[in-house]
Design goal:
Bound molecules: flavin mononucleotide
Helix content: 25-40%
Number of domains: 1
Distance between the termini: 11 Å
Order of helices and strands: EHEHHEHHEHEH
Oligomer: single chain
CATH superfamily: Flavodoxin domain
Length: 178
């Protein structure tokens, strides 16, 4: 089983903490091949809607787009983890999501379970988390994937989530849902 974790945060803060806690729980899953992509560390130019990919099945951009989106296509399980930026996912993650367009058929060809982790400063009942969850749910439905969890956590300073033991324990248990 291949699992791809996508970290949408540009800093070593709460999203990284959430992914670390998730990986601790994932140690319970046998024969899991885990790869992590830090969206801020890969070069993915914005989609220009040139439609080159419609004809060629790959993006025209000579950056990390094709490698990264191929890794998403090959995954059995995809974890998207993002800080909340302006009521939405981070720009770093959105660049990557927009490039799903370039290999949409390949992405839809392999069914996946998907998990979503969101960390924002606002309380967990804020509308922003359901807006993001609905966006990811729509993407999953379009591509024939199954969103198995979408969890929101409230933290602001980069070490704040690391001090929230209840949240970390909850995240460590999420592997059971995948
Ligand atoms: C550009 C920017 C926009 C933000 N917008 C929001 C927002 O709309 N809602 C919110 O709750 N927090 C917002 N935040 C706060 C972050 O979501 C919060 O600090 C989060 O814990 C950051 O995660 P990280 O430590 O993994 O980077 C914003 C932070 C930045 C830098």
């Amino acid at each position: 089983m291949k699992m791809l974790l996508v970290n949408g945060s540009p800093r070593k803060g709460n999203t990284c903490t959430a992914l670390t806690a998730l990986k601790e729980g994932l140690a319970n899953v046998p024969q899991l091949e885990i790869t992590q992509i830090d969206a801020a560390s890969v070069a993915i130019a914005p989609c220009k809607a040139c439609e080159y990919c419609r004809e060629h099945g790959l993006c025209l951009d000579e950056d990390d787009t094709n490698r990264v989106i191929s890794a998403v296509a090959e995954a059995d399980t995809l974890i998207l983890a993002t800080p909340v930026y302006w009521w939405g996912v981070s720009a770093q993650l959105k660049l990557l999501i927009d490039k799903f367009y370039s290999q949409a058929e390949a992405l839809a060809a392999k069914s996946k379970t998907v998990g979503l982790l969101m960390v924002g400063q606002a309380a967990t009942d804020d509308l922003q988390y359901s807006l993001i969850s609905q966006q990811i749910q729509c993407i999953c439905e379009y591509l024939g994937w199954k969103l198995t969890f979408a969890r929101a956590f409230s933290a602001d300073g980069p070490q704040e989530l690391a001090e929230n033991k209840a949240a970390l324990e909850e995240i460590e248990q999420l592997w059971k849902l995948l």
